[in-house]
């Protein structure tokens, strides 16, 4: 496939889940179902009905509020914070260290940023995984990190992309954005960002090939 590092690209914005670290979005549902004795369908229905993930990932509730909402919805006041955090972080799978190595190789050649719909508990979990493998934290790996729960906006809202461009002084046409979600890609592309969907089994190792390639960037439609 064509590489995406082309002349004119000065900045790269990375998504986190399934771009840098693989994730299993169903794992927390399975684990909370097991802990509560409810079915996965019942847990998922409660999550969606109360917008729990969206509220947490856009900073409408904090860590303590999220944990208490989980206890209330799943009717178990005895769960310690660690029990909830561990179940919530089962979304995170093993880190392919070679992806981090590739990002580190790009330092000095491009300005590197992270933009993720995420929560504080997940970020703490990711950084623990990174550090256990001798890797820098996300905050050390990138010039600047943008977490939805901190900026109180989430992809695919155009406002979050404008926020990143404005606060970091980026030109859309000089910026490459890598994300696994087609809705996020479409929204970024509409602002003139070179938005590329990372689609398994390919990874950023396939997309971020040597910039000397002469093939065209695979723009999203």
UniProtKB/TrEMBL annotation:
Gene3D superfamilies: HAD superfamily/HAD-like, Putative phosphatase, domain 2. Signal peptide: none annotated. It comes from the Bacteria. It holds the Pfam family Hydrolase. Coiled coil: none annotated. InterPro entries: HAD-like_sf (IPR036412), HAD-SF_hydro_IA (IPR006439), HAD_sf (IPR023214), PGP-like_dom2 (IPR023198). This is HAD family phosphatase. The lineage of its organism: Bacteria, Pseudomonadati, Bacteroidota, Cytophagia, Cytophagales.
